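Re: weekly structure request thread

Next one in the queue (144 aa):
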Amino acid sequence: MKLEFLGTRGNIDTQTAKHKHHSSIKISYYHHEVIIDCGEDWAGKVSDWNADAIIITHAHPDHAFGLKDGAPCPVYATEEAWKNMDSFQIKERRIINERERKQIPGNGSHPLFFEAFPVLHSTRAPAVGYKVQAGEAKIFYVPD
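Done, posted below.
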């Protein structure tokens, strides 16, 4: 499993060369690429990723608003997050339930598995962290 932090900046104006884009991480495993989070400043750049799927931790601007105009792949989020992203132009909306292990993408060899766990963050935009498993490797990704 390979991790690439595409962005680490929260919803603040301050930027540096190494802290420039909103939160986003790319997980690569064999021929699969899955993105977790897509903040507002990723708008218009999402199709450049060529990802199999995008997974959202919560519906704050710095984690999800880059998807307002849609996505070229399925997008996974909790039901609660989808309520806050109702107006987003996403064609392939998928639900990910808390504490349910889900293979994403849903086919092929060398699968990636994601499991959502509730984390304390915001009452208006409840968040989850993801346990990610690729083969024997496991990580836990938690948003800000």
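Residues 79-84 form the longest helix (6 residues). The mean pLDDT is 90.
Next request, please.
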